[in-house]
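note to self: dont lose this again. the chain is below, predicted strucutre after it. 316 aa total, dont forget to put it in the shared folder this time
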Amino acid sequence: MKALTFSQFGGPEVLEYTEVPEPLLKEGEVLVELKAIGLNYADVYRRQGAYHLMGDPPYIAGYEGAGVVIDANGVDDIYTGDRVAFADVPFANAELVAVPHEHLIPLPENISFETAASSLLQGLTAHYLTSDSYRIRAEETVLIHACAGGVGQLLVQICKAKDAYVIGLTSSDEKRAVALDLGADEVFLYNENWTESLASKNIAVVYESVGTTLLQSVEVVREGGTIVFFGFAGGAPPCINPRLLMDGSKTITGGDLWTYLNSKEERISRSASLFDWIETGIVSIAPSATFALEDGAEAHRFLESRKSTGKIILIP
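---
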């Protein structure tokens, strides 16, 4: 089978589309032919050697995808031809992937492969961020970094559905328009003096995914407020003096999806909530930028350019 691989860490140029052996199924695994694969910033971190990575060179990144079961391998309640998806299975940047039974997510007929690959990982991330890391309350003010990105767009919509006042941060007027169209109440640009503008906004929680802006997030959150740190797309975060937190009774909490996708029941129940949000229009999924899997290096460059306003998916 073909896969997008890399044998050394570095930029997009280290990626190679090449022939690799098909997965050997273990007991409890099924073989899925992928129809759409989600590209996430975590895959950039893996390519750079800055995030957890399974296997040996040539490495295959990717953890999110949707497709069709082509070998049920005797697993109960799974049949050849079933439409399935997953958000936390390694080696997804390939034509075929072995998926443990407990990681399979049944895909409703009215959710396309592309929608699943565009929404599962980011949607489940937004789900735990707003219900576990910090439970959004009505009329609170929320600040969302990278509000026009994949997770950011979902956070805007979910927080508005919970009757919060939503402020966004983004990098261009075009992205500001995207967030405002999704319901954000105000959106500031990173090249503006946003910390001064936000100082009086009584911000209860900051969703911090840039990394390099962590100190500013601590500065603008209100006394007793919370910063949810869940990514570092802009670079490694600075070290924080605990006095900055103590003096304002502020909290920094970390967020990672793998903490919450810890059982078959959690995966299915959380994805069912996400699919319901999509079906009922609580959240809309922006059209994806689509690349062939063999053009994965180009897709990585586009993701790192920060020009994208939604999800990027790869098609085998």
